[in-house]
Amino acid sequence: MVRLTRIYTKTGDDGKTSTATNERIDKSSDLIEAIGAVDEANSAIGMASEFHNDTIDRIQNDLFDLGAELSGAPTITISEERIVDLENIIDDYNENLEPLNSFVLPTGSLHNARTIVRRAERQVWKIEDINPNIPKYLNRLSDLLFVMARYHNKGNEKLWFPKK
C-alpha cells in the first residue's frame, strides 16, 4: 500500500520525476505525458460524479493500476480480463439504446471524459514496449463512456445534422 507522509518533496524542482522503479526521467518525456494523460482521464471520470456506481469506481481503480504499470510497478498489470469486462458492460448498456442514424454531439461530463481518455490512449501509443492491453483498455473505456453518455442522455441526445 502507498503511504504518503509529505506531499511536497522538492525532488521534482529540477524538471525530473521518479518512476516506480526509482528511475529519474524528464517530466516532459512521452512516458510521463502518458501517465499524466491517464491521471487527467481518471480525474475527468471522477467529475462525472452524478454517474458514480460500482463500474465507475472500478474504472478509476483500473486507471490507477494502469498508471502504476506505466510507471514500472512490477506487480500491477492490466489484464485481458478487464478488457472483456468493459466489453460486457458496453454490451449491457448498448442493449437499451436505439441504433444511431447520425453522429452524436458531445454533451455532458461523460463525453468530456471520453475525449480525455482518447487523448490518453494516443499518448500511450507513443510508449515503446508496453503491455498491449493498456491502449486496448483505454480504447474500450472510451467506447464505454460513449454508450454510458448515450444511455444517460436517452431522449435528450443531440445529433449532428451536417450543414444545418
Number of DSSP-assigned strands: 2
Q: Which spans of ≥5 residues are poorly predicted at pLDDT below 50?
A: none
CATH C-level category: Mainly Alpha
CATH 2nd-level architecture: Up-down Bundle
Cα distance spanning the termini: 54 Å
N-to-C SSE string, H for helix and E for strand: EEHHHHH
Number of domains: 1
Main sheet: which strands, in order across? 1-2
Global geometry: elongated
List keywords for this structure.
Hypothetical Protein Ta1238, Chain: A; elongated; mainly alpha; 4% strand; 164 residues; single chain
Notes on the structure:
- The chain has five helices and two strands.
- With 164 residues, the chain is mainly alpha-helical.
- It has a single domain, classed as Hypothetical Protein Ta1238, Chain: A (Up-down Bundle), CATH 1.20.1200.10.
- The protein is elongated, with a radius of gyration of 18 Å.
Structure at a glance:
Helix content is 52%, strand content 4%. It has 164 residues and is mainly α.
Would you spell out the secondary-structure blueprint of this structure?
Layout: E1 16-18, E2 24-26, H1 30-47, H2 54-70, H3 80-94, H4 109-124, H5 133-152
Antiparallel strand pairs: 1-2
